[in-house]
Structure formats: C-alpha cells, structure tokens
Write a structure and sequence with these properties.
The chain is an alpha+beta fold. The protein is built from 11 helices and 32 strands.
Length: 748
Amino acid sequence: MFFIMASCSIKKHIPEDELLYRGGEVNIETDSIIAEEEQLQDELEAILRPEPNTKFLGVYPGLYYYYINQREKPGFINKWLYEKIGEEPIYASDVKTYEVDDIIINRLENHGFFYSSSASTLDKNEDDKIAKAMYSVSIKQPYTLASYQLDSLQEPIYTSIQRSVNRSEFKKGLRFDLDFLKTERQRIDHHLKSKGYYNFNSDFLIFEADTTRYSSRQFDLYLRLKSGVPKKSLVPYRVEQINIFSNYDIENDSITNDTIRFNNKNFIETESYFNPKDLDPFITLKEGDFYNPRASRNTARRLSTIGTYKYVNIQYEEKDSLLTDSTAVLHANIYLSPLNKRSLKAELQAVTKSNSFAGPALEFSYSNRNLFKGGEIFSLSTNLGYEFQMGTDSDEPSASSTSIGIKGEILFPKVLFPFKISDSFFDYSIPKTKTSLSIDYLNRSDLYRLLSGTAEFGYVWNENKYTTHELNPISINYNNLIKTTPEFDIILEDNPFLQESFDQEFIAGLNYSFIYNEMVDVNKTHQIYVNTTVDIAGNVVSLFGKDNSDSKTETFLGLEYAQYAKLDVDFRYHFNFSNDQKIATRLFAGYGLPYGNSELMPYIKQYYSGGPNSIRAFRIRSLGPGTYEGVDDGTYNDFVDQTGNIRLEANLEYRFPLFSFFKGALFTDAGNVWNSKENDALPGGKISSDFMQQLGIGVGVGIRVDVQGFVIRFDFAAPLHDPTLKDGERWDFQYDETRFNFAIGYPF
C-alpha cells in the first residue's frame, strides 16, 4: 500500500515549472586505448553534482515524507519518519551542468588527460516530470612519464631523498596523476622523518614536469625543494638526552626532583614512585639515535598499556645552539601522570536473570595500581548475593541461592618466566603476567552447598592493533559438593550424567585464546572479530594419577580429576552503513572431547544455550540438548541445567538509531547444544544428521540505551522454532511466550 501511495503521490507534488532531477550519465569518447576506462567512467559519474533523490524499489520514500510534511497537520509519525529518512526534492533547475563540466575537465587533467573537453545537455521527460543530465566527454591521449630524477641539493638531505627516490614506484610509462604526486611527497616525507628530519614537511617538496623534449605526450619529472626552506628542516636530529618524569604533576612541576641515571636515561621523580629498571623496557627511544616518530608512538603506546598512568606525553626540545650544517640535537622529555594509586569501590546491584531468578548483590573491590613500584596492579574483590525464583506456585518447592566469593588478582606489566626473554622480542607491546586466585561458596536452598576455587597463571599480550594472545599454562579449578540434601541425592541418582559431571572435582590444565578484533576501528565499514579458544586439561596430572578403588577412574591428591580437550570459535561480522545503522552477525561453534579419565565433560565446562547473550527466546540453560524437553513437574528436577559438549549458534541483528541515546534492534537467533553420546537421562540429546531441524529459533525486538559506549539493553524475543515439540509442529510463532531479557552491553 505504501509503495502504491508513494509512487502516485510524488508526481502530483512536483511544481508545474519543475522537473525532478534523476542524476547524470557520462559518455566517453577517446582517441586512444585507455587502461581501466570503466573505472575512470565510474569516478567521473561519482563526482556529478547534485546527487538525485533516493529511489527504493521504484519509489521515493524520502520525497514522500517530505511532501507529506508540507501539510498543515502531517501527524507525529510522519514527522518522525521525515526526520529519519526525509529528503528535500532535487529539481532540474538546481543542476548547473556548466559547473559540472569544469569539474570533469579538472579531474581529467589531474589524471593526465590534458586538452580534453566536456559538453552537457539535460534530457527532459515532461510526461513523467523528470530530467537527466547527459555529459559527453572527449578524452585525449594521456601524458606518460619518461624520466624521474632529483635536482641537486645540499648534503646530507640530498643523499637521504635520493635513496627514497631510488625506491619509488614511478617508472617509465606511468600516466601522469596528481594523486600519485601527492602520495610520493608523503612517502618521501615519511622516509625522511624516520631518518631524523624532525622539522621536515612534505609541503617543502615540489614537482616540475617538462614536456618540451617530446612530441608524443611524454614528460620528464623533476623533484626539488621550494625556496626558503629553513636550515633546521634540512638536517637530521639526534636524541641527545632522554628525561622520564615518572610521577609528573603539572601543579608541582617546579618542585626539586631527584634524578636517577639508568641505562642511558634520566629518571626524574619527586619520590621513589616507579623502579627505573621496570619502567625502562617500555621506552624504545635511545640516546644517540636519530629521531624516529615510530619509536615515539611505540613508546607512548607501551607506556599507556601499563595501566598506572592516565596521561603519557612525549615532548621534544630543540637545542638550536647545537645546530650545524649536518646535524641537530633534541632532548626527549617523557611526562607520565599517574592515576590514583589506590581506589575502593562498593556496588549494590539488583540482579534479574532470564531463568526467573532475581535478587540483590553487593560487591566491594579494592585496587592498588603500583603495588611493588613496578606498575603491578593488585585487585581484591568480594561479593555477596542472594537470589530467589519468582513466579512459582505456592505448592511448588521454593528455590533460592546464596553466594559468597572473594577474588585476588595481580597483573604484572612484564613477563615472569624462568628464562630471560629479550625486550625486543615483543615489538608492539610487552606481555603482561596475570595471576589470580578465587574462592566461591554457593548454597542452593534445599539442594546442595558447593565450594569452588580457581587459580590461574598466564600471559596476555597484543601482537598488533588488532591481534591479542592470552595463554594460561596453569589453570586449576576445584569443585566440591560439601553437602547435599536427600532431594538432590535423588536427582543425582536419577541422572548419572549429572552425577558424573559433579564427581570430577579437580580440573588442571592450560588454555589459549587468539583474538582478532577489528571492532576497535569504530569508523570501519566492514568489521571482523574472531575469538578462538583451546582448553586442555588433565594430561600432566594423569602422569601422577592413582587408581581409584571405588571406580574405574584415577585420582590426584585423593580427588577425581578431569581429562578433556575443548575448542571454541566465535566469529562476528559487522556491516556499518548510513545513519549509524548496522547489521551485526555472529557464528559460534564449540566442541568438547572428554577422554582418558573422563567419560563426560565437567559440569562447569559444558556448553549451554539460551539467555540474553545467546538464543534470547529461551531461558538461560533451558534449550537442548537436542530435542530434550526438560522436566517441569513441580519438583526439584526442573532446576537441572540443560547442557552438552557440542554447541552451535548463529545470530543476526539489525541495529538502528531511534532518538537521543536510544537505539532499536530487530534480531533473530538460532542454535542449540548436543551431546556426542546418548544419555538415558537426556533422551533426544545426542547429535544426529538432522541437527539443523533441532535448532531453537527465536525472533525479537530490542531497545538499547547507549550513553558513550555504556549500554543498557532490553530485548523481547519469542520462539519461532521449538525443537522440543513434535516434528511437524516445531514451526510455530509463539508470540504469547515472549521472553524479556535485560542485560548490560551488546550481545555480540
């Protein structure tokens, strides 16, 4: 209906003396063969102005709402739509074709097509009330390069520029192109900066073309310096002195400071704040080296990653008194402004989950950002939470849980390793060593009490702007059911799968993650994110395992240990297009393989599906495995989370702005978990060839409050395909089963 209305309504609103402009077309005629002629035509058509009104599926939605809003009372919805997609009409009278002709000729000359011409006409259709601009372009044979050379200059800059010219891509036969000349100037400037020419500027370079020697449209290209270039721009600078102010405060910069000389650098501070030997590896500048902006950027980036400083400022001081005809001198001053060393935070939270559990949580955290005066970040956090299940009938057993936890972590901004690793081995950034220890207590009412502990030791480092590695060679988990109720004992007795999962109390192994993240470039149109994680446990422990007389498994320190390998791949692609709109996609695949001492994956290492960051139309941990329906008989059996050792998920989301900080979303999710082996306690949970027919699929809408990257998310989703239903009945849009999800941050 809209398209019919829009198509019929536009024409009648066009004024009688006007025609709607429908863009332009370029027709090229040449007197010689031109390489990449189609690309040239596309470029010329891209510079045609003005751009016509947007047309979509044969209609003009932007114009439609423009004309609707010319009414006296257009209505709130029409006003809002006009603000989002409305466009003012572009008429033929707005087109100045003679100005566009000049732009076309100028662009052709920039590409070496001199003495070309352009003639334009307006092709009018009075019946349809439209007009189109036609440009006939006659292109002459382009000028090509015969030779490229550098004019004589004074030393030492002549030799430096000549080396760069020798590596130039300007070769004989290259077509004249103004953009190439600009790029060449920038390339030479970049080369000179890396060789110490601190005060040089690309604007000092000028090209001259000489065609007098040739009659066949060729030219000689000469590179020289403009007149009046300052002397200090023509000599390289050496860094004579490096001064590091490790606890700089602009308000106290006149206070007398102590200077410590270490590794040919001056460490200046009002008090002993940061050990020079620990700070030195982050500084890639060296006394005696020529100035190099890359070394400055690397130093600033490495210092910023320590986590101790809020500002890193590198300033160079020129020593004009030491300027000669061949060299000059710089002093590098590195000002480091620390963050507050200690911080204490208390946070009261109201927690609500998609499995109907809700309750308050209290968290305290303390941090010290320079624990041993080497940039070590120590954090200690404690949490206390209580949750209860809402919406249960009075005759159903109540379910609640109390949790208490404490976690300590130290992040060292260096590699702690038995053998010395050269600082130059990690060019982009220095790895950090991470150690952590946590203990958690969970009391699930009338079911069990669980005590768990985790210890990790590992490294994290950035290989470049996009790539991050995280390796934890030591990862230990301990879980112990310290008390169970008779009701829970019955659950374990009826579900050997769950029983065996809890029996594996000790998990010791290593894990590695590779992350490639283009999301850091917020202005990039196409963004890719890949996170691959490998988790292996039990292999080293198995060398010291002892047979368990009560079962076929082995134990370590009296505890049954787990042995498995697990691989996850999380792939995301974002397509950012006009008006802050985005198509976000995600594909997740994971597989866990128990072997050796384990028949099943440990309970805490199994996959689950459903919830605010997964398949949003299903409760968290309630989907799968496979076609398993779960238990909902009003007993404690319905508490059991539904998990598996295989997981597949796919998500598609369209995100768009609404108004102010509010953004909207339309999304669809699909996925499930499976087991690689049949389990009598979870019928239908084994993966099979028709696993695609067992996907849980949901669709929904969302509203997000996005304030400078902090996102509060509200999603409403309903099942579209439910694998727990009988085959043939699974496709059913259950809008009456819409589920509300509340979360912080985007799901992917």
